[in-house]
Amino acid sequence: MRPVNGVFGNLGTTIFTVMSALAAEHGALNLGQGFPDDEGPDDVRAVAARAIVDGPNQYPPMPGMPALRQAVAAVNKRFYGLDVDWQKEVLVTSGATEALNDCLLGLLNPGDEAIILEPAYDSYKPIIEAAGAKVVSVALEPPLWSLPLEKLAAAFSPRTKLILLNTPMNPTGKVFTRAELDAIAALLIEHDAYAVCDEVYEHLVFSGHRHVPLMTLPGMRERCVRIGSAGKTFSLTGWKIGYVTGPEHLMTPIMKVHQFVTFTTPPALQTAVAYGLGKGDDYFAGLAGSLEAKRDLMARGLKEAGFDVLPADGTYFISADFRPLGFNGTDEEFCRDITVKAKVAAIPISAFYADPAAAPRYLARFCFCKQDAVIAEASARLGAYAQRRA
Question: Is residue 242 over pLDDT 80?
Fold first, then answer.
């Protein structure tokens, strides 16, 4: 038989699927998957329900419903001072993962190089390789996940087309500093490269930190596309509504990819997200405040169980060093062990590296966008597990 696609045909089952299946098999609390266990704002869901009944329910415009594109442009101005042409510079996609696919396929040519910062979301590498481009990885340095600027500068070459920047960052919870962003911007200008900015957790920032889109820095408006997610902003991950903002010369090829991937996205859900983006500042502040409290609850429980807990300034995720518990195996072995014995599932950080052998093998990622009672029970189970190992 002739071979199938060499990129996707050779991919194994993701660790997320493996750990979720193991959690279900053993009745474990699943803190591996990154989705909230509530159903999102009542008013946003009510708008979607009404829109399904009232219509329209036929194909909306390929780039997205005008109301949602206008709302995306408005929040760019409201939160970041960006002036965006909603007709030419905003695209609605069926989720942020589709947005990533559209951006990378629209911007990369075979032979190009794309820089990713590891640990990295697992879809980045295969999409880049499917475009015929080469992944160049630069590893951040735990426990603060610092950006090694000399290594980043060395990663650029005449073939570098773009860098993929995820801030706030999954899985680390890192919010890139202004100094780090300035350094990235300078390298992009020096090497005439672009940035695809995965900013789906833009409103989930804690501890007094502030999300600064790279696009707002001098010289970056024409070099960046930024990706947002209604799933993260409204705890509606199953709706799969993403949006891309960028200059027209970059958005044009990205939109052409979109038209041959999904073409469009459910209109009722677009209508509801447009409404949601117009919510008051109290909603966005309340969302971040609620998740910060959950982060603190999870961090406290992990510390009491004996873990060393790494900082998490944004996202749904917090990482913990399990070596103080006396476990000497790999991070994947640890995550399997706690799923079976503690009935709590987590994700090994090495799963976010192109080469797991080059990754730190002593860290596990826990998802804290869960009910407080679930976090408390998971912490108690992990504490009992640690005591049994003592």
Answer: yes
Q: At a CB cut-off of 8 Å and minimum separation 6, what does 245 contact?
A: 72, 73, 76, 82, 84, 89, 90, 215, 225, 226, 228
Spatial strand order in the sheet of 90-93: 90-93, 242-245, 224-229, 194-198, 160-166, 113-118, 134-139
Architecture of domain 15-39+288-389: Alpha-Beta Complex (3.90)
CA-based max dimension of the chain: 61
Q: What percent of the chain has pLDDT over 90?
A: 93
Q: Does domain 42-281 have CATH number 3.30.565.10?
A: no
Is 390's pLDDT higher than 80? no
DSSP 167: S
- Neighbouring residues of 293: CB distance < 8 A, sequence distance ≥ 6: none
- Any bridge partners for residue 308, and if so which? 321
Provide the token pair at 172. Answer: 């680390």
Q: List the alpha helices (DSSP H) in 120-220.
A: 124-130, 149-155, 178-190
Taking residue 161's Cβ as centre, other Cβ atoms within 10 Å add up to 22
Instruction: Spell out the domain ranges in the chain.
Output: 15-39+288-389, 42-281
